[in-house]
Amino acid sequence: MNIQDMDYTNGQIKPLDDSYKIDNIEQPTHILNLKNLCQVVNDNDCCYLTSKNVKGLMDKIDENGLSDWDLFKDSWSNLGIDKHMADGGLYRTRRHATLSAKASTTDYKLEQHQPHYQSLNYNTLNGGIQRHYEPIEPNVIRSKTMSTIIKFGLNIFSDLSPYSNWHIEIHQFRIDANDNSTSNPTPEGIHRDGVSFVLMVMIDKQNTANGETNIYDSNKLPLTSFKLTQPLDMAIVNDDRVFHGVTPIKQLDTNEPASRDVLVITFRKKILQ
Known about the structure:
3-stranded antiparallel sheet; alpha+beta; globular; disordered N terminus; 33% strand; 8-stranded antiparallel sheet
């Protein structure tokens, strides 16, 4: 796969520079509108966007859609310990919510709180059980920022799969790092989540190094790597077609707290019974 930093103007692909091939680490794709973003995800199965680009695209949905960002970001300081870490780690805190959406719409419904489940086929470390997490707080799940991010995803994935209803799960993650332990954003290693699409948003990072996102093909051969560093940096992954993983984070100054805050939203096509 060979994604370039492209200008997509009137459907025409215009490479900006040969040095911007995504095979080189940390080169984001620049997208001009949501339709073009759908094209990139469809053609390449993943996309890495800078916060500036994401903000511009979200402004097309609602120019005030991130107006409560600071309150949204601060909610990561009130997550619950993940008690289902089979590696014994206590470095991950999280909250969880489940939504649903009808085909070809950006309207969504908050479902009754329920456990998160992945089979062992997808999560060999923590899968195979129902994992109960504290719900995302009402003021956070109903915030303008959360709504804008959800609608951003629905705009993309409903265009890529217009006849699909969606099962949506939202995960607030904080990974704490200290000098005495390994802190893995994806302790299950290279994996797929067992969904259709994954949207990952950087919320904040403090005093950490590493945390590189790696994308692999269906044979787990590396395709590309990039690092989400700024608030609102984003990665989109077609989970049906590629694997992903994130490298362990490291505390830089051992005298200061270190953490990595990420929002992960998964979209799974619902099969009608």
